[in-house]
Description:
By secondary structure, the chain is of the alpha/beta class. It has five domains: about 10-155, Response regulator (Rossmann fold), CATH 3.40.50.2300; about 160-270, PAS domain (Beta-Lactamase, 2-Layer Sandwich), CATH 3.30.450; about 280-350, Helix Hairpins (Orthogonal Bundle), CATH 1.10.287; about 360-510, 2-Layer Sandwich (Heat Shock Protein 90), CATH 3.30.565; about 525-655, 3-Layer(aba) Sandwich (Rossmann fold). It contains 21 helices and 23 strands. The radius of gyration is 41 Å and the shape is flat.
Amino acid sequence: MTVAQVEPRERRLLILAPVGRDAELARAVLREASIEAVICPDLGALAREIAQGAGALLVSEEAIASEDDCGFLARQIERQAPWSDLPVVLMTHPGADSTAVGRAVRALGNVTLLERPVRVTSLGSSVRTALRAREKQYVAREHLVEMARAARALQASEARLRALFATAAVGIAEVTADGHFAFVNEALCRITGFERDALLFSPVVSIIHPDEKAELRRLIDELLAGRSDSFSTEKRLTRRDGSACWTQFTAAIARDDSGRMVRGVVVVQDIAERKAAEEGLRDADRRKDEFLATLAHELRNPLAPIRSSLHIFRLAGVQDAATQRVCEMMERQVNYMVRIVDDLLEVSRISRGKIELRRELVELTAVLRSAVDTSRPLIDAARHQLTVDVPREGVWLDADPVRLAQVFANLLNNAAKYTPAGGRVALSARTEGGQAVVSLKDTGEGIPPEMLASVFNLFTQLETGKRAQGGLGIGLTLARTLVEMHGGTIEAFSRGRGEGSEFVVRLPLPSAERLRQRADAVESYGVRTLKRVLVVDDNADAAESIGMVLQLLGAEVKVVNAGTEALDCLAGYKPDVVLLDLGMPGMSGYEVARRIRETPGAGGVTIVALTGWGQREDRNRTSDAGFDHHLVKPANVEALEMILAGDSGVPGNVTRH
């Protein structure tokens, strides 16, 4: 904001109230309000003081009662500079407006009326308002002075600017008020390929690419009409040889003292190299996406037989408790790896906070166990005593198990880091009022009361001294985001420093209908009809392991490792379902699917893409090729079961076409 350069006398309040003690009383009251005032005994004295400078006038009605006196004061005000609109506070007699008051309002202009008797607060408020209005006029005066100075400087430097025009590396032109070139420099001729004589007096828009003319003409019209003072935009020019050239096109106007446009200035910079660099960056970004997609595909392929092997152990009914626990732990870690691979393809989505939940019915105990397994090394390293108390009966949630485990792992990690060695951490769960309630208490350093409201804010960290172990301060923010996405809440409690802390997470329980749907789905798997499944994958380990899983699920399975083999055995084997890899050598899965659809008698076959490619474009391609489902490696066994059962509600990372 501009600070006006104002002399002290220009802020004075001048008082003209020659009758009685009004002037003295007013000055005394205003002094109490820190407003300095000068009393003028008559109109002549007031005129002399106005000439020296004034912030506002306080005038009584009787001081300008006659037409001559009012006219005299009006002439003094009119002699002020054009920017000036001197505020006048007029103290009037009570009752109806008098002739003198009406005359004053018309003649003096910027008048505020105060009816006597005047309240002290009203007087102070009216005078302050008048003085503030005068301050704004002084700011306007400064702007006008600066504009006048700039105009004079512009006129004085015209010769220097012309020299600059002639030698500048960018194209520069002067433009007339009707939008024609009046002067162009050598650089503009070089950029456009036109001779100077060909450009002079031609319309500016004549060198603009046809596709850009309408928009540029609109911008120029707004400039010429005074609705804007300048604009800068990227536009293509059409060179003399007909080729297009990307430029940064900037235009501004110069006005005279009256505000009328004198000249416009156009600056044209060739940005072809920059545009090429931007296209290179976009190409690099596309290559990065392709690399991540390929990396995810290559990582999913070895994960597929690992997950399938773990499912084989589970479906075969491993009896040894230790082996079963190891299998469960490995399965959780494979799930984490799968999620990490998926996130590789969604870096930009995650950075914008657009996290997607993959909901399924999951038991709370399993989620908490996964979180404890993740945080166990940190807890054990600090020699903390961890107690876990969960209900004996299963508590089911409609949730993303990986994201929810991430919430509780973050809370456990914080408890481990901010609790002195050998402390206690207690994790408990219960149901209450249609919600699952999970509490995590520790005997750590606690949270100051003033921080409880902001502890979940991004990049917030507690100044707790020696126990602080770095980090960006995003764990609790992410935890709150994920909990709220599940329709729940998270709260922090603490009595203060050294008193430990408690975090309470509340999550809604699924409806009875949702639980019944799961029970029905589980029951349906046990009574499904035996189906023939053809597995086609050039990765022998992946094909063999998924075939074994399908056999344990009750299907009849045939495994082949090439697209041509699949087509050769199609007529004799007559599969109900084909699990088909996409990126096979020789004949791709897309081509195999098309040929299956063209084979007489194979129209009822369910074709499932089982692939490491999982981006939206890949799913669209499988749909176009005639696939019924798109399943991303490593396979989700629940999804396979539901496909075999013909269930339309396929869960997980699956697209049903």
